[in-house]
Structure prediction request, 101 residues.
Amino acid sequence: MKKIIGIGIVSLLMLGTLGMAGMNIGKMTPAGIDSSTGVKNSECLNLTFSEPVSIHNGDYTNVEMNGTETYYMGKFLVPSYSKVMTFPFGTEIEGIDVSIG
Prediction:
C-alpha cells in the first residue's frame, strides 16, 4: 500500500511538469520587453485640462476644471484626476516623468 501511495505522489509530481514540456525556454523574455522586437515597452499618457474656475458659494469657494473629479469622500473639494494603470506581473517601473506646460 505504501508503494502505491509513493508511486501515486511521484506520478502527480511528474504530471505537473508536463505543462512546461512544450515551452521554448530560449524565447522567454523578461516582463516589459516585447519578445518579437526585444524593445522595452513604455506607456505615455497625455492629459489636457481646462483653466480652473473658482465659484464663490456662500462661505466656500469651489474650484472646478473640466475633465476632473472634484469630490472624494473625506477630502477637500479640489480638482483631481486619477488613473489606474494595469501592467503584467513582474513589470518593473523604471520611472515616472511629469511635465507641466
Observations:
- Residues 30-101 form one domain.
- The mean pLDDT is 73.
